[in-house]
Write a structure and sequence with these properties.
It is a single chain. By secondary structure, this protein is an alpha/beta fold. Helix content is 38%, strand content 21%. A hairpin with a 2-residue loop joins strand 7 and strand 8. Helix 34 runs antiparallel to helix 35 and helix 36 runs antiparallel to helix 37. The structure holds one RNA strand of 87 nucleotides.
Length: 1188
RNA sequence: GCCGCGGUGAUGAAAUUGGUAAACAUAGGGGACUCAAAAUCCCCUGUCGGUAACGGCUUGUGGGUUCAAGUCCCACCCGCGGCACCA
């Protein structure tokens, strides 16, 4: 009589002894009779302790390995150690241990622990990367890569971990921190070894597509490789005199079609061209300071600082090959030196980052350079003069206005002379002013009003320092100044003989500002000419205030525009500068118009396409905050839009907007408060005109003070639409046409416009689709189409000790040479100082130096760096196939049979590091005909993470670590394995909190199977048992193949529960149950196998029960539904006809009622599944109990 | 921000790929055996109404397609993961 519980310690010991005696898992790789299957787990770093994660990593694939063997496969399931790495070295530094001894001792411990899990690894194939037998071949493969120009030594900016005192590969830097220790990485410029993974970027990408991996793994790799299609465009550079510098900046862009919108060029601070350009740069100090500041910043600081910084290269310009414009050149660290060409063409209108930079740059220049305003009226105002002249006529001093004007012109003819010749004495000048004296009193009377009005506006300009310059005619302006809001500090008084130069210099001195920070408003042509030689032309604002030279000054800025805008100096500057691309302010020029197609009236084929300019105005009622919308009637019934209409000939968009508000809403006195930054378009068919239209829309937000003086609109307007007011939050959802929604969104966006559309402001390409025109634009600019990758070459040098020595030596001239194959393995010296100094520990080895000189000659020196450990692990799966081979890295014949790996399981953290490196390495070997296939792994499963019972990641500091050893002691290895298998699906990226009761419940389940042996008899099996076993075997087998161990165990539980309901179980049935249990609980199943049968053979070398197909035809449960609600069920042969089922279903009262009362009832029958009766008659009657 | 994956009871999770939602467990409740406890066995356990038979509702939210939707389509919300100034 069996006991209640099994003795897991004895069971496990006995089983292990048997397996070792039978040498069960030593795979014969040369066996060609059985189908080979290569199951690979990521080999561990020998840290010395085995935790829950290791159990999960090895015991789960073991279920599959055991299952596959039972299915008759020749399974290779090898194990080894990724034994080079920092912890060994740190143990050496901290505790004075020998890294080698420490590592080998840890491996001994881990081997025992792994064996206690009952994992069926083939230890015979074991690989240890720090073993010279292994790293000899790592070195040999490195040599091959070097010979094929895939390994290269070069100087580059590299990531440096100050804590680990070594460089890191890009893949080992997470968010600017060292992946291993979390220390913030620094940037250094060093000569290091690289593997040219970038050459394989394209193939790593395309070969990914057919792999049956989970999408998130493939996506992660794709993102890491980061392919983008674009073009390289060359911009010639010019100096301040716009002479060619014979230097070209090449930029990379993915949107070459926006080249007409380029307003500046940006170079990365590390751009190699920069030193060449410096002689042409005027502000060298500023540029050097910026470069220094950025190189001091860490990568993290650079990207954390959201504000984009940069400096302009004064005196250097780039020539846009498309627009033939000259644009400024900046140095800014938002451009990365290591990507593309390290330079970009900035299109602020259509690129988010350029937009940010340009906006910020414009804000800065507005702040720093527009603060000092000078208004110089020379004492006379043009409009005043007109009034004065009229007054003179009226008073009879002159007969007519013509005569009056001639007096004035006579005066004026002397003015330019006096302005240029400052040798005139005040006495001499006095003569010229006699004429003006005559007008003095009248000026006094009439001039004040206009001046005061002007000053009132000027004074509102925020943060502006204002000076009003008066001159000899101060006696006329003086009273005006007194009458205005100006105070004495606003006024500087000069004599007429003072030149403009003197004036400006004094202003600068008195205010303590730079000349280039002064903006000058003047009113005369003469002043303008003279100022030109002193001030930057762009800072002079002629406003045609004076009565002369209006023609010239109006060209600079029309007076009407000044009047319109002078309350906002930023607007003045912006609109002025947008006309001059080389100005201080960066223009933001839209070249792509997003275009939507009207859904209700789409354009029709064969009609003429007419362009039309329209306005779309969102009118806001200031008192309620509601917005006006139009509900259209007639043919446009159901459409809701904002106020809208066409722009008539000669109208500005603003004028049109105000006119439409008047027409459609009957409102006046409306203010435009916001203008959409971008023009959008819609295509539709104007069927009444028989034409297709492309409507450009200028969006506006306008505001109305009050609705009290709203007037009736015309009858026509009233008929076509109704005006409604809605809350701001409802506007977007109320608008019906997509284009209207788009305008609303653009009115509220402060971003660049990154969508596609058609081109404007693009010369000959205007009107063409931006995507379609791209290739023609490329051709016209002589651009080169290129594909760029984000991935960088793999930096493999490490300034550490415990790694594979790079098999390179340097001749006395410093040139690298491979260590010849006969000297491999190029062994790691032992006489070294481990302490991390930033220099490689190998440099301290006397033995290494002597070895090099002995072999290669005097003056030759060794390479001191060791290889990144990821090189070691990039090919270990090939070594498993012939791990003891002395003459080759593996075995070609065996590789041909066994590679690629059929299924590779591991952690998600290796997706972009180990997995990508391995694929690259393997492809490189494939190209050298060293491995048989281009991809190393057919399937890749990333396992989930086991969390602590608190749902947090297990860590010693949190005290939530589950120790598997203690659980194994108490419940046995099989229970721990099964609990892990049951916790959830393995091949999903989830995470599972450890449930403390879980292992115990699994143990109880195992005990139930153990106790079931009490019921075993030698009676022969019945169909019932055969059917149940067959079903379970198929289900469990299928689930194991999919790594859905949780549902496999559920099926096993159901089987056990069913068997428990019998008082007697046939021996064959019980033994088949044990077979199904074997992959999950290898020890217990082995033990029970022998107890119940007495065979000498291991259960793990027997065959998985197959489902007897003659028992698969079974009854099906058919669900009877009325209107898709379950009313009962019928168990019947799977193939039963509709009539049969319906006949039986009639016995359900509800069904019968329906079929009796509703002759139109429809019946849907899916054989083996469902019978659904669809009726409009409600089946209120209660249904009877289900039938058989 | 972009990309990917996901969202189902108190919890881990199932669901023949469009066909009985919640299998199998854990936790909880009740019972049997026992002087008692452990062990073992049995029953209940999505939610609302009802003593019950039974009925209504329910797979993040809102729509849609369909005889039928956790599963398909559209919009949105939330969580996790990857990339992130990559032009």
């Amino acid at each position: 009589m069996a006991k209640e519980q099994y003795d897991h310690k004895k069971v496990e010991e006995d089983s292990r002894a048997l397996w070792s005696q039978l040498d069960l898992y030593n795979t014969d790789l040369s066996n060609t009779e059985k189908d080979p299957y290569y199951l690979l787990v990521e080999f561990p770093y020998p840290s010395g302790d085995l935790h829950t994660g290791h159990w999960y990593a090895y015991a789960m694939p073991d279920i599959y390995a055991r299952y596959l063997r039972m299915k008759g496969k020749n399974v290779l399931f090898p194990f080894g150690f990724d034994a080079f790495g920092l912890p060994a070295e740190n143990a050496a530094i901290k505790r004075g241990l020998d890294p080698k001894e420490w590592t080998y001792a840890n491996m001994d411990t881990m081997r025992t622990q792994v064996k206690n899990m009952g994992v069926s690894f083939d230890w015979d194939k074991e690989v240890i990367t720090c073993d010279p037998e292994y790293y000899k071949w790592t070195q040999w493969l490195f040599s091959k890569l070097y010979e094929h120009k895939l390994a290269e030594r070069r100087e580059a900016a590299v990531k440096w971990c100050p804590k680990d005192q070594t460089v890191l590969a890009n893949e080992q830097v997470l968010n600017g921190h060292c992946e291993r220790c979390g220390t913030e990485v620094e940037e250094k410029f060093l000569t290091q070894w690289f593997l040219k993974i970038t050459q394989y970027a394209k193939r790593l990408l395309t070969d990914l597509d057919p792999l049956p991996w989970r999408e998130e793994i493939k996506e992660a790799q794709r993102a890491w490789i980061g392919e983008s299609e674009g073009a390289k465009i060359s911009f010639p550079l010019k100096n301040i005199a716009l002479e060619d510098l014979e230097v070209f900046v090449e930029v990379f862009t993915t949107r070459p079609e926006t080249i007409f919108g380029v307003t500046y060029i940006v170079l990365a601070p590390e751009h190699p061209l920069l030193p060449t350009l410096m002689p042409a740069v005027l502000n060298t100090e500023e540029v050097e300071a910026y470069k220094l500041a950025t190189t001091k910043k860490t990568e993290r600081e650079r990207s954390e600082n959201k504000e984009k910084t940069g400096v302009k290269l004064e005196g250097v310009f780039a020539y846009n090959p498309a627009t033939l414009d000259v644009v400024p050149v900046y140095v800014a660290d938002y451009v990365l030196a290591s990507y593309g060409t390290g330079a970009v063409m900035a299109v602020p209108a259509h690129d988010e980052r350029d937009f940010e930079f340009a906006t910020r740059q414009n804000q800065l220049s507005a702040q720093t350079q527009q603060h000092h305003l000078i208004f110089d009226f020379d004492g006379v105002l043009g409009d005043t003069f007109e009034k004065v002249l009229l007054a003179q006529v009226a008073m009879g001093n002159v007969p007519d206005i013509e005569t009056a004007r001639n007096h004035v012109l006579n005066y004026a003819s002397k003015k330019p002379h006096h302005a240029r010749d400052h040798s005139l004495t005040p006495e001499e000048l006095q003569y010229n002013y006699d004429w003006t004296d005559k007008f003095g009193e009248i000026l006094h009377a009439n001039g004040i009003e206009l001046f005061t009005e002007f000053v009132d506006e000027i004074i509102k300009i925020p943060n502006a320092k204002i000076a009003v310059v008066t001159s000899g005619s101060v006696k006329y302006v003086g009273p005006a100044i007194e009458n205005s809001k100006l105070n004495p500090s606003h006024v500087l008084t000069f004599e007429d003989h003072h030149s403009k130069e003197e004036k400006v210099e004094r202003i600068a001195r008195d205010w303590g500002v730079n000349l280039n920070e002064i903006s000058y408003f003047t009113d005369t042509k003469a002043d303008y000419y003279e100022l030109e030689t002193i001030l930057d032309q762009k800072k002079i604002f002629g406003c045609a205030w004076g009565f002369l030279g209006a023609d010239v000054l109006e060209e600079v800025m029309p007076r009407s525009q000044i009047l319109e805008n002078y309350s906002d100096i930023h607007t003045v500057v912006k609109s002025l500068e947008s006309n001059k691309s080389a100005g201080t302010m960066l223009s933001i020029k839209q070249v792509v118009v997003p275009c939507s197609v009207d859904q209700i009236n789409p354009p029709q084929d064969g009609l003429e396409d007419v362009k039309r300019d329209t306005v779309v105005v969102h009118l806001r009622d200031k008192s309620t905050g509601k917005f006006a919308l139009l509900n259209w009637h007639g043919t446009l019934e159901g459409i809701t839009t904002a106020i809208m209409g066409g722009i008539e000939e000669g109208q500005t968009p603003e004028e049109a907007a105000l006119a439409e508000i008047h027409e459609e809403a009957g409102l006046e006195g409306v203010q435009i408060i916001h203008t959409a930054p971008w023009v959008t378009a819609a295509k539709y068919c104007a069927s009444h005109k028989g034409q297709n239209r492309t409507a450009h829309a200028y969006g506006f937000i306008a505001e109305v003070e009050n609705l009290s003086n709203q007037k009736e609109t015309t009858e026509y307007e009233q008929k076509t639409h109704t005006l409604t007011w809605v809350d701001e939050s409802e506007v977007l959802s109320s608008l019906t046409p997509a284009h209207q929604k788009q305008i609303w969104e653009i009115l509220h966006s402060e971003n660049a416009l990154t969508t596609d559309g058609y081109l404007i402001n693009s010369g000959e390409f205007d009107g063409r689709d931006s995507q379609e025109a791209m290739s023609d634009i490329l051709d016209s600019t002589g651009a080169e189409r290129v594909t760029q990758y984000r991935i960088r070459d793999w930096l493999i040098s490490r300034q550490r000790y415990w790694g594979c020595p790079i098999p390179v030596v340097y001749d006395p001239e410093g040139n690298p040479h491979l260590v010849p194959a006969e000297h491999l393995p190029w062994t790691l010296p032992t006489d070294v100082d481990f302490s991390p100094t930033g220099k490689s520990p190998l440099a301290t080895s006397k033995e290494l130096h002597e070895r090099v000189e002995r072999i290669f000659g005097k003056g030759w020196t060794p390479e001191y760096d060791t290889l990144d450990v990821f090189v070691d692990s990039s090919w270990y799966y090939a070594r498993y196939l012939d791990s003891k081979n002395q003459t080759d890295f593996s075995n070609q014949a065996v590789m041909k049979q066994w590679l690629p790996v059929d299924r590779y399981t591991g952690g998600a953290e290796h997706t972009t590091v180990h997995l990508l490196y391995s694929r690259f390495f393997y492809k490189a070997l494939y190209d050298m005909a060293l491995v048989p296939t281009p991809e190393p792994f057919i399937e890749r499963f990333n396992r989930g993470i086991i969390l602590g019972p608190d749902g947090q990641k297990m860590s010693k500091s949190k005290g939530n670590v589950v120790n598997p050893d203690a659980l194994v002691q108490e419940f046995g290895a099989d229970a721990v394995r099964m609990y892990l298998a049951f916790i959830g699906p393995y091949n999903e990226p989830g995470s599972y909190p450890w449930n403390l009761g879980g292992v115990e419940s699994m143990r109880k389940f195992l005990d139930r199977i153990y106790r079931l042996s009490n019921k075993v008899t030698d009676s022969s099996t019945t169909d019932e048992f055969t059917l149940a076993l067959g079903k379970a075997a198929a289900k469990i087998g299928g689930d194991i193949e999919k790594f859905k161990f949780n549902t496999a165990i559920a099926a096993l539980m159901i089987l056990v529960r069913d068997l428990e309901s019998f008082t007697e179980i046939p021996r064959t049935t019980y033994r088949e149950l044990l077979l199904l249990l074997a992959p999950f609980a290898p020890h217990l199943s082995e033990s029970l196998w022998h107890v119940s049968g007495g065979t000498e053979q291991s259960i793990h070398s027997t065959v998985w029960p197959h489902q007897d197909m003659s028992f698969t035809e079974e009854l099906a449960t058919i669900i009877i539904q009325i209107n898709s609600k379950k009313k009962g069920e019928i168990t019947i042969e799977r193939e039963a006809t509709e009539e049969t089922v319906l006949g039986l279903a009639r016995e359900i009262e509800a069904v019968n009622n329906v079929l009796g009362s509703d002759s139109s009832a429809r019946v849907i029958y899916v054989p083996g599944r469902i019978l659904n009766i669809v009726t409009s008659v409600s089946s209120t009657s209660n249904c009877t109990t289900p039938l058989i």
